[in-house]
Write a structure and sequence with these properties.
Elements lengths: L6 E4 L10 H11 L15 H7 L5 H12 L5 H9 L7 H10 L4 E6 L3 H12 L12 E4 H4 L6 H11 L6 E4 L3 H8 L4 E3 L18 E5 L7 H17 L2 E6 L4 H5 L11 H10 L4 E4 L4 H4 L3 H12 L1 E7 L12 H11 L2 E5 L3 E2 L5 E2 L2 H9 L3 H8 L4 E7 L13 E5 L10 E9 L2 E10 L11 E6 L10 E11 L7 H18 L1
Parallel strand pairs: 1-2, 1-4, 2-3, 4-5, 6-7, 6-9, 7-8, 9-10
Antiparallel strand pairs: 11-12, 13-14, 13-18, 14-17, 15-16, 15-18, 16-17
Helix pairs in contact: 1-4, 14-15, 16-17
Length: about 500
Protein backbone atom coordinates (compact mmCIF):
# COMPACT_ATOMS: atom_id res chain seq x y z
CA UNK A 1 0.00 0.00 0.00
CA UNK A 2 1.31 3.42 -0.93
CA UNK A 3 2.08 5.76 1.91
CA UNK A 4 0.01 8.87 2.43
CA UNK A 5 1.29 12.01 0.69
CA UNK A 6 2.60 14.47 3.22
CA UNK A 7 4.96 16.62 1.14
CA UNK A 8 4.64 18.46 -2.16
CA UNK A 9 7.49 19.53 -4.42
CA UNK A 10 6.17 22.16 -6.84
CA UNK A 11 7.95 23.32 -10.00
CA UNK A 12 7.71 27.02 -10.85
CA UNK A 13 7.89 27.54 -14.62
CA UNK A 14 5.04 25.81 -16.44
CA UNK A 15 3.33 24.54 -13.28
CA UNK A 16 2.77 27.77 -11.36
CA UNK A 17 3.80 30.47 -13.81
CA UNK A 18 2.82 30.42 -17.49
CA UNK A 19 5.80 30.61 -19.87
CA UNK A 20 6.15 32.26 -23.27
CA UNK A 21 9.33 31.08 -24.99
CA UNK A 22 8.24 32.55 -28.34
CA UNK A 23 7.75 36.03 -26.90
CA UNK A 24 11.15 35.88 -25.20
CA UNK A 25 12.92 34.90 -28.43
CA UNK A 26 11.12 37.69 -30.32
CA UNK A 27 12.21 40.27 -27.75
CA UNK A 28 15.82 39.11 -27.95
CA UNK A 29 15.58 39.37 -31.75
CA UNK A 30 14.50 42.98 -31.35
CA UNK A 31 17.77 43.58 -29.51
CA UNK A 32 19.68 41.97 -32.39
CA UNK A 33 20.10 38.46 -30.97
CA UNK A 34 18.69 36.09 -33.59
CA UNK A 35 20.10 32.64 -32.76
CA UNK A 36 19.33 31.59 -29.20
CA UNK A 37 16.27 29.40 -29.72
CA UNK A 38 18.34 26.23 -29.36
CA UNK A 39 19.48 27.36 -25.90
CA UNK A 40 16.03 28.16 -24.51
CA UNK A 41 13.77 25.41 -23.24
CA UNK A 42 10.64 25.42 -21.10
CA UNK A 43 12.21 22.86 -18.74
CA UNK A 44 15.96 23.55 -18.59
CA UNK A 45 18.26 25.76 -20.63
CA UNK A 46 21.42 25.06 -22.63
CA UNK A 47 24.80 26.75 -23.06
CA UNK A 48 25.55 29.79 -20.93
CA UNK A 49 21.82 30.06 -20.13
CA UNK A 50 22.23 26.73 -18.29
CA UNK A 51 25.39 28.00 -16.59
CA UNK A 52 23.37 30.97 -15.39
CA UNK A 53 20.54 28.70 -14.26
CA UNK A 54 23.05 26.71 -12.20
CA UNK A 55 24.59 29.85 -10.72
CA UNK A 56 27.95 29.15 -12.40
CA UNK A 57 27.93 32.70 -13.78
CA UNK A 58 26.34 35.74 -12.18
CA UNK A 59 23.88 38.25 -13.65
CA UNK A 60 26.58 40.66 -14.83
CA UNK A 61 28.45 37.87 -16.62
CA UNK A 62 25.21 36.64 -18.18
CA UNK A 63 24.40 40.11 -19.53
CA UNK A 64 27.96 40.49 -20.89
CA UNK A 65 27.59 37.23 -22.82
CA UNK A 66 24.33 38.50 -24.30
CA UNK A 67 26.04 41.75 -25.35
CA UNK A 68 28.93 39.82 -26.91
CA UNK A 69 26.48 37.86 -29.06
CA UNK A 70 24.57 40.98 -30.08
CA UNK A 71 27.74 42.87 -30.90
CA UNK A 72 26.45 46.30 -29.91
CA UNK A 73 25.72 48.17 -26.66
CA UNK A 74 22.45 47.30 -24.93
CA UNK A 75 21.46 48.27 -21.40
CA UNK A 76 20.92 45.94 -18.44
CA UNK A 77 17.26 46.97 -18.45
CA UNK A 78 16.80 45.98 -22.11
CA UNK A 79 18.35 42.55 -21.53
CA UNK A 80 16.34 41.96 -18.35
CA UNK A 81 13.11 42.98 -20.11
CA UNK A 82 13.72 40.51 -22.94
CA UNK A 83 14.71 37.71 -20.56
CA UNK A 84 11.78 38.32 -18.18
CA UNK A 85 9.31 38.20 -21.08
CA UNK A 86 9.81 34.41 -20.81
CA UNK A 87 7.54 34.66 -17.74
CA UNK A 88 3.88 35.59 -18.02
CA UNK A 89 1.92 35.36 -14.79
CA UNK A 90 0.91 33.04 -12.00
CA UNK A 91 -2.89 32.75 -12.16
CA UNK A 92 -4.23 34.02 -8.86
CA UNK A 93 -6.26 30.87 -8.28
CA UNK A 94 -3.02 28.84 -8.15
CA UNK A 95 -1.68 31.06 -5.39
CA UNK A 96 -4.93 30.63 -3.48
CA UNK A 97 -4.63 26.88 -4.03
CA UNK A 98 -1.13 26.89 -2.53
CA UNK A 99 -2.39 28.68 0.59
CA UNK A 100 -5.08 26.01 1.06
CA UNK A 101 -2.65 23.17 0.36
CA UNK A 102 -0.23 24.46 2.96
CA UNK A 103 -2.79 23.67 5.66
CA UNK A 104 -2.49 19.97 4.72
CA UNK A 105 1.05 19.48 3.37
CA UNK A 106 4.60 20.67 3.63
CA UNK A 107 5.24 22.49 0.35
CA UNK A 108 8.64 23.01 -1.23
CA UNK A 109 9.40 24.96 -4.40
CA UNK A 110 11.96 23.20 -6.62
CA UNK A 111 12.75 25.38 -9.61
CA UNK A 112 15.29 25.68 -12.38
CA UNK A 113 15.59 29.46 -12.33
CA UNK A 114 18.05 32.34 -12.20
CA UNK A 115 18.57 35.57 -10.32
CA UNK A 116 16.90 37.86 -12.90
CA UNK A 117 13.77 35.71 -13.22
CA UNK A 118 13.50 35.11 -9.51
CA UNK A 119 13.82 38.78 -8.55
CA UNK A 120 11.22 39.64 -11.19
CA UNK A 121 8.88 37.01 -9.73
CA UNK A 122 9.31 38.33 -6.19
CA UNK A 123 8.53 41.87 -7.33
CA UNK A 124 5.77 41.19 -9.87
CA UNK A 125 4.14 37.87 -8.99
CA UNK A 126 4.12 37.07 -5.30
CA UNK A 127 4.15 40.63 -3.97
CA UNK A 128 1.17 41.59 -6.13
CA UNK A 129 -0.96 38.95 -4.44
CA UNK A 130 -0.31 40.57 -1.08
CA UNK A 131 1.62 37.67 0.45
CA UNK A 132 5.30 37.04 1.02
CA UNK A 133 6.67 34.13 -1.01
CA UNK A 134 7.24 32.19 2.21
CA UNK A 135 3.49 32.28 2.84
CA UNK A 136 3.16 29.70 0.08
CA UNK A 137 6.20 27.47 0.67
CA UNK A 138 7.91 25.91 3.65
CA UNK A 139 11.23 26.19 1.86
CA UNK A 140 12.66 27.29 -1.49
CA UNK A 141 15.10 25.25 -3.56
CA UNK A 142 16.36 27.31 -6.51
CA UNK A 143 18.83 25.93 -9.03
CA UNK A 144 21.03 29.03 -9.25
CA UNK A 145 21.57 28.92 -5.47
CA UNK A 146 22.09 25.14 -5.35
CA UNK A 147 24.47 25.04 -8.37
CA UNK A 148 22.40 22.09 -9.60
CA UNK A 149 19.55 21.85 -12.09
CA UNK A 150 16.85 19.35 -12.95
CA UNK A 151 16.88 16.66 -14.33
CA UNK A 152 20.15 15.92 -12.48
CA UNK A 153 19.12 13.45 -9.72
CA UNK A 154 21.65 15.16 -7.44
CA UNK A 155 19.30 18.12 -6.98
CA UNK A 156 16.61 15.79 -5.58
CA UNK A 157 19.15 14.03 -3.35
CA UNK A 158 20.27 17.35 -1.93
CA UNK A 159 16.67 18.44 -1.29
CA UNK A 160 15.89 15.18 0.54
CA UNK A 161 19.01 15.59 2.67
CA UNK A 162 18.18 19.20 3.55
CA UNK A 163 14.54 18.52 4.46
CA UNK A 164 14.66 14.98 5.85
CA UNK A 165 11.36 14.15 4.13
CA UNK A 166 10.42 10.65 3.04
CA UNK A 167 10.44 10.32 -0.79
CA UNK A 168 7.59 7.80 -0.69
CA UNK A 169 5.46 10.39 1.12
CA UNK A 170 6.34 13.09 -1.41
CA UNK A 171 4.60 14.13 -4.65
CA UNK A 172 6.64 16.06 -7.23
CA UNK A 173 4.62 18.15 -9.75
CA UNK A 174 6.66 19.18 -12.79
CA UNK A 175 5.66 19.73 -16.43
CA UNK A 176 8.81 17.96 -17.65
CA UNK A 177 8.48 14.18 -17.94
CA UNK A 178 12.29 13.96 -17.92
CA UNK A 179 12.48 15.79 -14.59
CA UNK A 180 9.80 13.51 -13.16
CA UNK A 181 11.66 10.36 -14.26
CA UNK A 182 14.77 11.62 -12.46
CA UNK A 183 12.78 12.12 -9.25
CA UNK A 184 11.24 8.66 -9.54
CA UNK A 185 14.70 7.04 -9.39
CA UNK A 186 14.81 8.17 -5.74
CA UNK A 187 11.34 6.87 -4.93
CA UNK A 188 9.56 10.23 -5.22
CA UNK A 189 6.04 10.04 -6.64
CA UNK A 190 5.36 12.37 -9.57
CA UNK A 191 2.69 14.02 -11.68
CA UNK A 192 3.27 15.73 -15.05
CA UNK A 193 0.53 18.26 -15.84
CA UNK A 194 -0.19 19.36 -19.40
CA UNK A 195 0.51 22.93 -20.50
CA UNK A 196 -1.52 25.39 -18.40
CA UNK A 197 -3.39 22.51 -16.74
CA UNK A 198 -5.40 23.17 -13.63
CA UNK A 199 -3.77 20.46 -11.48
CA UNK A 200 -5.84 21.35 -8.42
CA UNK A 201 -8.05 18.35 -9.18
CA UNK A 202 -5.31 16.20 -7.59
CA UNK A 203 -6.39 17.55 -4.20
CA UNK A 204 -10.16 17.19 -3.75
CA UNK A 205 -9.79 17.98 -0.04
CA UNK A 206 -8.99 21.61 -0.92
CA UNK A 207 -11.03 21.90 -4.12
CA UNK A 208 -12.93 25.16 -4.49
CA UNK A 209 -16.26 25.85 -6.04
CA UNK A 210 -16.47 27.68 -9.33
CA UNK A 211 -18.77 30.27 -10.84
CA UNK A 212 -18.79 29.76 -14.60
CA UNK A 213 -20.42 30.63 -17.88
CA UNK A 214 -20.67 28.61 -21.10
CA UNK A 215 -20.11 29.64 -24.69
CA UNK A 216 -17.93 29.63 -27.76
CA UNK A 217 -17.01 33.33 -27.36
CA UNK A 218 -15.77 33.93 -30.89
CA UNK A 219 -14.04 37.30 -31.05
CA UNK A 220 -14.16 37.88 -27.30
CA UNK A 221 -16.05 41.12 -28.01
CA UNK A 222 -17.29 43.68 -25.49
CA UNK A 223 -20.46 41.68 -24.84
CA UNK A 224 -18.37 38.64 -23.92
CA UNK A 225 -16.18 40.78 -21.69
CA UNK A 226 -19.31 42.02 -19.93
CA UNK A 227 -20.24 38.39 -19.22
CA UNK A 228 -16.71 37.61 -17.98
CA UNK A 229 -16.83 40.62 -15.67
CA UNK A 230 -20.17 39.41 -14.30
CA UNK A 231 -18.73 35.93 -13.64
CA UNK A 232 -15.68 37.38 -11.88
CA UNK A 233 -17.84 39.63 -9.68
CA UNK A 234 -20.18 36.76 -8.80
CA UNK A 235 -17.24 34.47 -8.01
CA UNK A 236 -15.67 37.02 -5.67
CA UNK A 237 -18.96 37.52 -3.86
CA UNK A 238 -19.39 33.78 -3.36
CA UNK A 239 -15.67 33.26 -2.63
CA UNK A 240 -15.51 30.89 -5.62
CA UNK A 241 -13.04 30.69 -8.49
CA UNK A 242 -14.22 32.11 -11.82
CA UNK A 243 -14.35 29.89 -14.91
CA UNK A 244 -15.34 29.81 -18.57
CA UNK A 245 -16.51 26.58 -20.21
CA UNK A 246 -15.78 26.67 -23.93
CA UNK A 247 -14.95 24.43 -26.88
CA UNK A 248 -11.85 24.17 -29.11
CA UNK A 249 -13.96 23.54 -32.25
CA UNK A 250 -17.22 25.26 -33.15
CA UNK A 251 -20.05 22.88 -32.05
CA UNK A 252 -21.83 23.27 -35.36
CA UNK A 253 -18.74 21.96 -37.18
CA UNK A 254 -18.93 18.77 -35.12
CA UNK A 255 -22.63 18.27 -35.80
CA UNK A 256 -22.42 19.22 -39.50
CA UNK A 257 -19.36 17.76 -41.24
CA UNK A 258 -19.70 20.10 -44.23
CA UNK A 259 -20.02 23.27 -42.13
CA UNK A 260 -17.20 25.77 -42.73
CA UNK A 261 -17.22 28.38 -39.97
CA UNK A 262 -16.09 31.94 -40.57
CA UNK A 263 -14.59 33.07 -37.29
CA UNK A 264 -13.20 36.24 -35.75
CA UNK A 265 -10.60 34.42 -33.66
CA UNK A 266 -8.65 31.18 -33.79
CA UNK A 267 -8.87 28.77 -30.87
CA UNK A 268 -5.49 29.92 -29.52
CA UNK A 269 -6.40 33.62 -29.83
CA UNK A 270 -9.75 33.06 -28.13
CA UNK A 271 -8.27 31.11 -25.21
CA UNK A 272 -5.55 33.73 -24.72
CA UNK A 273 -8.14 36.52 -24.59
CA UNK A 274 -10.25 34.57 -22.07
CA UNK A 275 -7.22 34.14 -19.82
CA UNK A 276 -6.32 37.82 -20.15
CA UNK A 277 -9.85 38.82 -19.10
CA UNK A 278 -9.02 37.86 -15.50
CA UNK A 279 -10.93 34.55 -15.51
CA UNK A 280 -9.28 31.96 -13.24
CA UNK A 281 -10.03 28.83 -15.29
CA UNK A 282 -10.59 28.29 -19.00
CA UNK A 283 -12.22 24.84 -19.17
CA UNK A 284 -11.90 23.43 -22.69
CA UNK A 285 -14.48 20.74 -23.41
CA UNK A 286 -14.22 18.65 -26.55
CA UNK A 287 -17.63 18.93 -28.19
CA UNK A 288 -18.65 15.42 -29.24
CA UNK A 289 -21.89 13.82 -30.43
CA UNK A 290 -22.11 12.22 -26.96
CA UNK A 291 -21.85 15.61 -25.29
CA UNK A 292 -24.42 17.05 -27.69
CA UNK A 293 -26.82 14.23 -26.77
CA UNK A 294 -26.90 15.26 -23.09
CA UNK A 295 -30.00 17.03 -21.83
CA UNK A 296 -29.49 20.49 -20.35
CA UNK A 297 -29.94 19.06 -16.85
CA UNK A 298 -27.41 16.27 -17.42
CA UNK A 299 -24.93 18.77 -18.86
CA UNK A 300 -25.31 20.99 -15.81
CA UNK A 301 -24.83 17.94 -13.59
CA UNK A 302 -21.64 17.10 -15.51
CA UNK A 303 -20.33 20.62 -14.91
CA UNK A 304 -21.12 20.36 -11.20
CA UNK A 305 -19.73 16.85 -10.65
CA UNK A 306 -16.65 16.93 -12.88
CA UNK A 307 -15.65 20.62 -12.85
CA UNK A 308 -16.98 21.88 -9.50
CA UNK A 309 -19.27 24.45 -11.15
CA UNK A 310 -21.70 25.46 -8.42
CA UNK A 311 -22.85 28.76 -9.93
CA UNK A 312 -23.70 29.26 -13.59
CA UNK A 313 -24.10 32.59 -15.38
CA UNK A 314 -26.52 32.19 -18.31
CA UNK A 315 -27.20 34.76 -21.04
CA UNK A 316 -30.77 35.86 -21.69
CA UNK A 317 -30.98 33.97 -25.01
CA UNK A 318 -28.40 31.24 -24.44
CA UNK A 319 -29.54 27.66 -25.04
CA UNK A 320 -27.67 24.44 -24.40
CA UNK A 321 -28.43 20.76 -24.09
CA UNK A 322 -30.07 18.31 -26.49
CA UNK A 323 -32.34 20.12 -28.98
CA UNK A 324 -31.88 23.36 -27.00
CA UNK A 325 -35.53 23.11 -26.05
CA UNK A 326 -35.15 24.37 -22.47
CA UNK A 327 -35.25 28.01 -21.44
CA UNK A 328 -33.93 30.09 -18.57
CA UNK A 329 -36.75 29.06 -16.22
CA UNK A 330 -35.89 25.40 -16.88
CA UNK A 331 -32.21 26.04 -16.15
CA UNK A 332 -33.09 27.72 -12.87
CA UNK A 333 -35.27 24.75 -11.89
CA UNK A 334 -32.47 22.29 -12.72
CA UNK A 335 -30.10 24.47 -10.72
CA UNK A 336 -32.42 24.32 -7.72
CA UNK A 337 -32.55 20.51 -7.98
CA UNK A 338 -28.76 20.23 -8.38
CA UNK A 339 -28.00 22.85 -5.69
CA UNK A 340 -26.39 25.04 -8.36
CA UNK A 341 -26.95 28.80 -8.45
CA UNK A 342 -28.19 29.90 -11.90
CA UNK A 343 -27.60 33.60 -12.45
CA UNK A 344 -29.37 35.14 -15.48
CA UNK A 345 -27.73 38.04 -17.29
CA UNK A 346 -29.34 40.58 -19.59
CA UNK A 347 -28.00 41.27 -23.10
CA UNK A 348 -25.12 43.71 -23.37
CA UNK A 349 -26.24 46.86 -25.18
CA UNK A 350 -23.68 49.35 -26.44
CA UNK A 351 -25.20 52.72 -25.55
CA UNK A 352 -22.60 54.60 -27.60
CA UNK A 353 -23.61 52.96 -30.86
CA UNK A 354 -27.39 53.32 -31.30
CA UNK A 355 -28.42 50.80 -28.64
CA UNK A 356 -26.88 47.91 -30.58
CA UNK A 357 -26.98 44.42 -29.06
CA UNK A 358 -23.42 43.29 -29.68
CA UNK A 359 -22.96 39.73 -30.94
CA UNK A 360 -20.33 37.70 -32.77
CA UNK A 361 -22.65 37.21 -35.77
CA UNK A 362 -23.19 40.98 -36.05
CA UNK A 363 -19.45 41.67 -35.97
CA UNK A 364 -18.79 38.94 -38.56
CA UNK A 365 -21.29 40.59 -40.94
CA UNK A 366 -19.68 43.98 -40.40
CA UNK A 367 -16.14 42.65 -40.94
CA UNK A 368 -17.15 40.77 -44.10
CA UNK A 369 -18.45 44.08 -45.51
CA UNK A 370 -15.06 45.69 -44.85
CA UNK A 371 -16.19 48.04 -42.05
CA UNK A 372 -13.22 47.13 -39.85
CA UNK A 373 -13.45 50.37 -37.86
CA UNK A 374 -16.92 49.51 -36.50
CA UNK A 375 -15.98 45.85 -36.04
CA UNK A 376 -12.99 46.93 -33.96
CA UNK A 377 -15.16 49.18 -31.79
CA UNK A 378 -17.38 46.26 -30.87
CA UNK A 379 -14.42 43.93 -30.38
CA UNK A 380 -12.60 46.52 -28.19
CA UNK A 381 -9.42 45.80 -30.16
CA UNK A 382 -8.40 46.11 -33.80
CA UNK A 383 -9.34 43.10 -35.87
CA UNK A 384 -6.25 41.25 -37.09
CA UNK A 385 -5.04 38.41 -39.27
CA UNK A 386 -2.04 36.23 -38.54
CA UNK A 387 -0.18 34.70 -41.48
CA UNK A 388 3.05 33.89 -43.25
CA UNK A 389 4.82 35.87 -45.98
CA UNK A 390 4.94 33.89 -49.23
CA UNK A 391 6.23 34.58 -52.72
CA UNK A 392 3.89 36.66 -54.89
CA UNK A 393 3.65 38.08 -58.40
CA UNK A 394 6.55 40.53 -57.87
CA UNK A 395 4.64 43.26 -59.74
CA UNK A 396 4.30 45.75 -56.90
CA UNK A 397 8.03 46.51 -56.81
CA UNK A 398 7.96 47.56 -60.49
CA UNK A 399 5.18 50.02 -59.64
CA UNK A 400 7.11 51.51 -56.73
CA UNK A 401 4.98 49.72 -54.16
CA UNK A 402 6.68 46.44 -53.16
CA UNK A 403 4.30 44.14 -51.33
CA UNK A 404 4.52 41.13 -49.05
CA UNK A 405 2.12 38.41 -50.14
CA UNK A 406 0.39 36.92 -47.09
CA UNK A 407 -1.09 33.48 -46.57
CA UNK A 408 -3.46 33.49 -43.58
CA UNK A 409 -2.62 30.73 -41.11
CA UNK A 410 -6.18 29.67 -40.29
CA UNK A 411 -8.61 29.15 -43.21
CA UNK A 412 -11.62 29.55 -40.88
CA UNK A 413 -10.76 33.14 -40.00
CA UNK A 414 -12.77 35.90 -41.66
CA UNK A 415 -11.07 37.84 -44.46
CA UNK A 416 -12.68 41.30 -44.76
CA UNK A 417 -14.20 42.48 -48.05
CA UNK A 418 -12.03 43.14 -51.10
CA UNK A 419 -10.45 46.56 -51.07
CA UNK A 420 -7.63 48.66 -49.65
CA UNK A 421 -7.09 49.10 -45.90
CA UNK A 422 -4.89 51.08 -43.54
CA UNK A 423 -3.07 48.54 -41.37
CA UNK A 424 -0.37 48.14 -38.80
CA UNK A 425 2.07 45.34 -39.59
CA UNK A 426 3.89 43.40 -36.88
CA UNK A 427 7.08 41.54 -37.87
CA UNK A 428 9.48 40.08 -35.27
CA UNK A 429 7.97 42.26 -32.56
CA UNK A 430 8.33 45.51 -34.53
CA UNK A 431 5.26 47.46 -35.68
CA UNK A 432 5.12 49.32 -38.99
CA UNK A 433 2.45 51.21 -40.91
CA UNK A 434 1.22 50.03 -44.26
CA UNK A 435 -1.61 49.66 -46.75
CA UNK A 436 -3.19 46.30 -47.40
CA UNK A 437 -4.84 45.09 -50.57
CA UNK A 438 -7.37 42.26 -50.65
CA UNK A 439 -8.77 41.22 -54.02
CA UNK A 440 -8.28 39.49 -57.37
CA UNK A 441 -6.03 42.17 -58.97
CA UNK A 442 -8.46 42.88 -61.87
CA UNK A 443 -6.21 45.47 -63.54
CA UNK A 444 -3.39 42.93 -63.85
CA UNK A 445 -5.66 40.07 -65.03
CA UNK A 446 -4.37 37.49 -62.57
CA UNK A 447 -7.51 35.38 -62.59
CA UNK A 448 -10.05 34.69 -59.83
CA UNK A 449 -7.59 33.83 -57.06
CA UNK A 450 -7.87 36.22 -54.11
CA UNK A 451 -4.64 37.92 -52.98
CA UNK A 452 -3.70 39.50 -49.66
CA UNK A 453 -0.77 41.86 -50.15
CA UNK A 454 0.65 44.53 -47.88
CA UNK A 455 2.89 47.45 -48.77
CA UNK A 456 4.87 48.21 -45.61
CA UNK A 457 5.91 51.86 -45.38
CA UNK A 458 9.62 52.68 -44.99
CA UNK A 459 10.57 49.01 -44.97
CA UNK A 460 13.03 47.06 -47.12
CA UNK A 461 13.87 43.66 -45.63
CA UNK A 462 13.68 40.09 -46.86
CA UNK A 463 10.84 38.58 -44.83
CA UNK A 464 9.85 35.57 -46.96
CA UNK A 465 8.51 32.71 -44.80
CA UNK A 466 8.31 35.05 -41.78
CA UNK A 467 5.25 35.21 -39.54
CA UNK A 468 3.32 38.46 -39.94
CA UNK A 469 0.35 40.08 -38.19
CA UNK A 470 -1.96 42.49 -40.04
CA UNK A 471 -3.90 44.83 -37.74
CA UNK A 472 -6.81 46.56 -39.48
CA UNK A 473 -7.13 50.28 -38.73
CA UNK A 474 -9.60 51.51 -41.35
CA UNK A 475 -11.12 50.90 -44.77
CA UNK A 476 -9.80 53.08 -47.60
CA UNK A 477 -11.65 52.07 -50.77
CA UNK A 478 -13.19 49.17 -52.65
CA UNK A 479 -11.30 47.07 -55.19
CA UNK A 480 -11.29 48.73 -58.62
CA UNK A 481 -10.29 47.82 -62.16
CA UNK A 482 -8.23 50.48 -63.93
CA UNK A 483 -7.76 50.97 -67.66
CA UNK A 484 -3.98 51.00 -67.38
CA UNK A 485 -1.09 50.25 -65.05
CA UNK A 486 -0.35 54.00 -64.98
CA UNK A 487 -3.82 54.73 -63.59
CA UNK A 488 -3.34 51.99 -60.98
CA UNK A 489 0.02 53.48 -59.94
CA UNK A 490 -1.48 56.96 -59.59
CA UNK A 491 -4.26 55.53 -57.40
CA UNK A 492 -1.73 53.74 -55.20
CA UNK A 493 -0.04 57.08 -54.50
CA UNK A 494 -3.42 58.54 -53.52
CA UNK A 495 -4.09 55.48 -51.34
CA UNK A 496 -0.82 55.94 -49.52
CA UNK A 497 -1.65 59.57 -48.75
CA UNK A 498 -5.09 58.57 -47.53
CA UNK A 499 -3.63 55.89 -45.25
CA UNK A 500 -1.08 58.29 -43.78
CA UNK A 501 -3.87 60.75 -42.96
CA UNK A 502 -5.80 57.98 -41.21
CA UNK A 503 -2.85 57.35 -38.94
Amino acid sequence: MKKEIKNLLIDFGGVLIDLDRKRCIENFKRLGLHDIGNMLNDFHQQGFFLDYEKGLINSAEFRDKIRALIGKPVTDEEIDHAWNSFLRTVPSYKLRLLLRLKRHYKIFLLSNTNDIHWQYSLDNVFACDGHNVHSYFNRLFLSYKMHLAKPDPAIFTKLLEKTGINPEETLFIDDSAENCRAAETLGIRTYTPAAQEDWGHLFPEVAVRRAATIGFFDGMHEGHRYIMSTVITLAKGLKYDSAVVTFPVHPRKVLQADYQPQLLTTTEERYEMIRESGIDHCISLEFTPELAALSARDFMKKLRDEYRVDALVVGYDHRFGRNRSDNLQDYMQYGFELKMVVFPIEPYINDKFKQVIVSSSLIRQIALKGDVRTASRYLTYHYFLQGTVTSGYQVGRTLGFPTANVKVDNPDKIIPADGVYAVEVVIEGQTYRGMLYIGTRPTLHNGPERSIEVNIFDFDQDIYNSPIRLIFIDYVRKDLKFDSVEELTAQLHRDREAVLKMF
